[in-house]
């Protein structure tokens, strides 16, 4: 089985993309999704968040939500809003946000390579969210949300994708968040073959975002293999929808923390406890850390710069040296009593795209006691964790810009 392959994608008909394309299903609340679909009958949110078409209060994991999603997908196909390409294609995809641009390819990635560790992961999944994606795939008989993969630096792949993106795009829209999405259909068989062969030479691909989607695709494939006596290993369910970008073009923002209380400490006691391992410096403006081991902290209307003593940074440990780990091991756990960031409801997470002002607002509201700003995890650090077969702490990376839903769907 090849690492990646082209596929006949289901995508918006010419001129319909602006009506269809939507933000990823998991970056908004249900109420925000309901507001986004107002006046937009063909928004892909009617498929990815079908609860917007049902009464408020419905369980988003209920069978009727998945059933409604399948109904909406069928209606969009019947209306000609979504059409399927007649032949397998790769789709060259450019994302542009401000002065940042990244160029990758939409492809079907091998489930066998994922199961075998050639497509490497770095996060644990939550059972309920993973089951949600399994149910969605089964109900639609399709994969609609792409897994964000990264490939190691390779000038030959970069050059091929650049060449493919020289002409007029087949789709070019700017979404409400001002992110530009451009798509070129790569239907030329010789260039598709060349791209497949170049990817086949790579040692690995890396899951950047979409661990629940990739895990769900693996589970669906395993069950369908068992249920299909004619299984050949080349069925559509043996591959999953992905968008693959070069390592050097991806952009990871900070993923910051809020804590609800100081575990019974007064502010002065808390600040004193920090001095055992951190240099604590009050500053006059919001702190955006410029290097690993530095942290910003907002407490009682005051910003502080925290600098961890270098002797506590284990440079040879790919997980231990991450800033999210350092904050957990030297502050969140021993001082504030947060042992598991995945399950403790005293902690919350704020993506860097929202800015440091969002941290101030949450603390100033009185609902949260303290906020911490972090230096972003690098792509190199993420790949090092994956290569070591280790798992990163939860909420370690925030990728921007976000992939769009509805650009290309992989039918099973």
Can you walk me through this structure?
With 412 residues, the chain is an alpha+beta fold. It is built from 13 helices and 21 strands. The protein folds into 2 domains: 4-251 and 400-411, no CATH class; 255-375, Conserved hypothetical protein from pyrococcus furiosus pfu- 392566-001, domain 2, CATH 3.30.1760. Strands 1, 4, 5, 6, 8, 9, 10, 11 and 12 form a 9-stranded mixed sheet that branches. It has a 6-stranded antiparallel sheet with strand order 15-17-16-19-14-18, with helices on both faces. A two-stranded antiparallel sheet has the order 2-3. The model has no long low-confidence stretch (mean pLDDT 96).
The gross shape turns out to be globular
pLDDT averaged over residues:
96
Tell me about the largest β-sheet. 9 strands, mixed
Q: Rg, please?
A: 22 Å
Which regions are unreliable across 5 or more consecutive residues at pLDDT < 50?
none
Compute the number of strand runs. 21
Span between termini = 17 Å
- Secondary-structure content class: alpha+beta
Strand % is: 15-25%
- How large is the count of helical segments? 13
Helix content: 25-40%
Number of domains: 2
Outline:
The protein contains 13 helices and 21 strands. With 412 residues, it is α+β, with helices and mostly antiparallel strands. The strands form five sheets. Strands 1, 4, 5, 6, 8, 9, 10, 11 and 12 form a nine-stranded mixed beta sheet that branches.
Secondary structure elements and their pairing?
Blueprint: E1 4-5, E2 10-12, H1 17-20, H2 30-36, H3 45-48, H4 63-78, E3 82-84, E4 90-97, E5 100-110, H5 111-115, E6 119-120, H6 127-140, E7 142-143, E8 147-151, H7 155-164, E9 171-174, E10 180-186, H8 189-200, E11 205-209, H9 211-227, E12 239-246, E13 252-253, E14 255-259, H10 267-274, E15 278-283, E16 294-299, E17 302-308, H11 323-332, E18 347-351, H12 356-364, E19 370-374, H13 379-387, E20 398-399, E21 410-411
Parallel strand pairs: 6-11, 8-12
Antiparallel strand pairs: 1-5, 2-3, 4-5, 4-10, 5-12, 7-21, 8-11, 9-10, 13-20, 14-18, 14-19, 15-17, 16-17, 16-19
């Amino acid at each position: 089985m090849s690492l990646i392959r082209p596929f006949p994608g289901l995508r918006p008909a010419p001129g319909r993309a602006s009506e269809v394309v939507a933000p990823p299903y998991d970056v908004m609340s249900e109420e925000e999704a309901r507001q986004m679909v107002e006046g937009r009958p063909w928004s892909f949110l009617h498929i990815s968040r079908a609860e917007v078409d049902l009464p408020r209060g419905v369980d988003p994991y209920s069978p009727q939500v998945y059933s409604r999603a399948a109904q909406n997908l069928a209606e969009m196909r019947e209306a000609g809003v979504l059409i399927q390409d007649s032949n397998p294609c790769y789709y060259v995809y450019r994302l542009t946000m401000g002065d940042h641009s990244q160029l990758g390819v939409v492809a079907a990635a091998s489930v066998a390579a994922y199961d075998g560790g050639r497509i490497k992961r770095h996060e644990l999944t939550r059972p309920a969210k993973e089951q949600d994606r399994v149910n969605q795939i089964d109900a639609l008989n399709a994969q609609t949300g792409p897994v964000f993969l990264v490939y190691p630096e390779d000038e030959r792949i970069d050059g091929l994708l650049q060449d493919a993106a020289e002409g007029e795009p087949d789709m070019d829209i700017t979404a409400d968040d001002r992110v530009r999405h451009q798509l070129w259909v790569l239907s030329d068989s010789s260039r598709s073959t060349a791209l497949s062969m170049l990817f086949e030479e790579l040692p690995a691909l890396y899951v950047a975002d979409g661990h629940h989607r990739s895990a769900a695709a693996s589970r669906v494939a395993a069950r369908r293999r068992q249920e299909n006596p004619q299984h050949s290993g080349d069925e559509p369910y043996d591959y999953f929808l992905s968008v693959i970008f070069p390592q050097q073009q991806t952009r990871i923002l900070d993923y910051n923390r809020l804590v609800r209380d100081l575990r019974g400490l007064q502010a002065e006691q808390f600040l004193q406890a920090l001095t055992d391992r951190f240099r604590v410096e009050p500053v006059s403006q919001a702190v955006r850390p410029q290097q690993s081991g530095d942290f910003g902290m907002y407490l009682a209307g005051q910003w502080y710069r925290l600098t961890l003593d270098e002797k506590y940074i284990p440079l040879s440990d790919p997980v231990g040296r991450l800033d999210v780990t350092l904050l957990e091991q030297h502050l969140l756990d021993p001082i504030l009593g947060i042992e598991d960031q995945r399950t403790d409801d005293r902690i919350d997470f704020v993506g860097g795209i929202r800015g440091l002002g969002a941290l101030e607002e949450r603390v100033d509201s009185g609902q949260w006691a303290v906020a911490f700003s972090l230096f972003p995890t690098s792509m190199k650090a993420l790949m090092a964790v994956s290569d070591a077969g280790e798992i990163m702490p939860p909420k370690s990376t925030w990728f921007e810009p976000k992939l769009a839903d509805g650009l290309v769907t992989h039918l099973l």
